[in-house]
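sry for the spam today, last one i promise. C-alpha cells for design, 118 residues
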C-alpha cells in the first residue's frame, strides 16, 4: 500500500533521493533534509499510513518491531549513550500536532546541544 503523491513513499521507492540510514521488510529510515539537531533522521513504515490517528491493534506487530529498532539506530547514527547523551523521539500527528508530511514517521534527534530547534 503506497500513495503515488506521497514524498515518503517516493523516498522508499527510490524515486526521490535520500540519505538512507536503515531498511528492512517493514521499515525505512533516512536523514531529515532540514535537521533540527546534530543527529536527525526519520523512521517510517513502508506501508503508507497517514499518521498515528489511523493505527489499530492490527498494527501492533510491525509497530513494536519499528519502535524496538530506534535505540540502536540512534546510537549507530551518532547519538551518545543514555543518560548523559540520549535522544528525542517524536511523532507529530495532525495539524495541531505539527505534522507536515502525511506518512507516519518518527523523528529521532540527538547529539550535543544547543540544537537548531526542539
Ligand atoms: P513533520 O512536520 O513531523 O511532518 O516532519 C516532516 C519532516 O520531513 C521535516 O522535518 C522535513 O524536514 C522532512 N522532510 C521533508 N521532505 C524531505 C525529504 N525529501 N527528505 C528528507 N526529509 C524530508
Ligand atoms: Zn506514503
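last one done:
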Amino acid at each position: 500500500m503506497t500513495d503515488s503523491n506521497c514524498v515518503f513513499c517516493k523516498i522508499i521507492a527510490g524515486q526521490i533521493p535520500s540519505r538512507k540510514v536503515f531498511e528492512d521488510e517493514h521499515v525505512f529510515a533516512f536523514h531529515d533534509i532540514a535537521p533540527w539537531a546534530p543527529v536527525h533522521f526519520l523512521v517510517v513504515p513502508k506501508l503508507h499510513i497517514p499518521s498515528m490517528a489511523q493505527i489499530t491493534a492490527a498494527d501492533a506487530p510491525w509497530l513494536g518491531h519499528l519502535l524496538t529498532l530506534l535505540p540502536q539506530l540512534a546510537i549507530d547514527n551518532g547519538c551518545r549513550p543514555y543518560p548523559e547523551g540520549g535522544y528525542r523521539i517524536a511523532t507529530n500527528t495532525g495539524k495541531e500536532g505539527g505534522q507536515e508530511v502525511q506518512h507516519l514517521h518518527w523523528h529521532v534527534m540527538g547529539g550535543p546541544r544547543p540544537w537548531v530547534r526542539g
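Residues 60-76 form the longest helix (17 residues). ok im logging off now
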